[in-house]
Amino acid sequence: PIMGSKTPDPKIKVDSTPIQKTPLAKADFSATLLGEPLRSLATYQILNPAEEISRVWTKLFAPDAVRQNSVRRRAKMQERDFGAGGAPVRYPEPDVLVLDPSFAKYKIPHSPIKRLCTGMLWAEGPAWHRAANYLIWSDIPNSVRHRLIFDDGHVSTCHTNSHFSNGNTFDYEGRLLSCEHGSRSVIRIEHNGSVSTLANRYDGKLLNAPNDIVVHPDGGIWFTDPGYGSLGQYEGQKAEFELKEAVYRIDPATGSVELVLDDMFKPNGLCFSPDYSKLYVVETGSSHYPDAPKNIRVYEVKEGVSLTNGREFCSMALNSNGKLLEGIADGIRADADGNIWAGSGWVGADYDGVHIFSPDGNRIGQILLPEICANICFGGPRRNILYMTASQSLYMVHVETTGAHIA
User: Fold this and answer.
1) What is the pLDDT of residues 285-337, one digit of tens each?
2) What are phi and psi of 11, to 5 degrees?
3) Residue 180: what are its φ and ψ, rounded to 5°?
4) What angle do CA 96, 100, 104 make, to 5 degrees?
5) What is the rounded distance in angstroms from the CA atom of residue 402 to the CA atom of residue 149?
6) Pairing state of beta strands 306-315 and 114-118?
7) pTM reported for the whole predicted model
8) CA distance linking residue 82 with residue 112, whole number of Å
9) Average pLDDT in the 56-76 region?
């Protein structure tokens, strides 16, 4: 029909012959999906739907096949331009990879990965403020915090001279909590704008350089202290360590700083499980210790204040086309179903981005980015946008899940 008219265009011939459904053999079905153009599944009768879905899944979407398809796709097209002036990506979004059928429900085929802004030196620490609908994150070397206003997409610098802040989060009163490399402390920005130092010492000794931070419903504040900000001048102030790298808890009643674990080389990103019964902690010690594993560990949270039964949750090693890729994770978040989403990198194409692990530690999905992804968080009014701070840029993609926690 012509636009705006209910009368059929006489130039267009419509074939009104009824469609005859015919049984489709297994080989024909696979050929249709894997080779020949797919006309309409409505014209076929699949003889054994469950068996066919499983078989085609294995051929199309098994991890190796997904990566091989990604490599072939990248070889056939120019490097994707994620910028605002770049050409739109053809759906389904090609850089959100379903490695296991359980991840398929989280991918939205017509939700593109978007680069929202660029120009930072090392973007880190994204955190979402629910009440005010904004995202905050750090640019560590530039010693500033930036803010993205959700309603109009406006990006601005909201805190200059942030003392090389790294990880950020919000407490249950909406106050910003931040790990500062430069001051070697954990601080809180009060509602009136004043700054309170919550922790800068343990056992009388200066902290190394607090890195990432989460809050517990009981008001406790948990943070990691791997010391990266004291290793040089680029992301903090070069200084000697006074303490072993560790994870600490700030007691909400007394304000005391308590050691909760020191059995890792360099504990980095951390997050709780949705029910707060587990704490996940990223090991990044391989940056400076040859014997350090490249993994994420998990601990049982005992009575909300201590940890027990530490063990490996997952390895970050990835087999890709017969090659072992050994990158590391950094910042992590849990979704409402208990999956762990990990900003990852230091390998290159087909690895850098976000790796998603099921609650039992199996890698089920990937989001490929053209930059190393340092950290992530769920945001947006419905908490279904994954924000990714990746090297010099901030990215986003909608997903069919929500973040498990407040920031």
Assistant:
1) 999 999 999 999 999 999 999 999 999 999 999 998 889 999 999 999 999 99
2) -80, -15
3) -110, 120
4) 55
5) 19
6) unpaired
7) 0.84
8) 10
9) 52
* Peptide bond between residue 293 and the one before it cis (omega within 30 degrees of 0): no
CA distance 41 to 334: 37
**Amino acid sitting at position 367:** I
Per-residue three-class SS string for 227-283: CHHHCCCCCCCCCCCCCCCEEEEECCCCCCEEEEECCCCCEEEEEECCCCCEEEEEE
Q: Under a CB-based contact definition with an 8 Å cutoff, are residues 267 and 306 in contact?
A: no
Element (H, E) at 34: helix 26-34
Identity at 363, one-letter amino acid code? R
Query: Does residue 184 contact residue 240 with C-beta atoms inside 8 Å?
Result: no
- Written as six digits, the tokens of 13 are 């011939």
- Which two structure tokens, joined as six digits, stand for 160? 């200059």
DSSP string, 66-118: HHHHHHHHHHHSPPP--STTSPPPPSS-TTEEE-SGGGGGG--TT---EEEEE
Beta bridge partners of 188: 177, 196
Name 195's bridge partners: 189
Alpha carbon distances (Å) from 272 to 268, 275, 335, 338, 361: 14, 8, 10, 9, 15
* d(C-alpha 334, C-alpha 339), whole Å: 6
43 vs 379, residue with greater confidence: 379
Exposure pattern of 63-100 as b/e (b: 16+ CB <10 Å)?
A: beebbeebeeebeeeeebebeeeeeeeeeebbbbbbbb
CA 125 to chain centre: 11
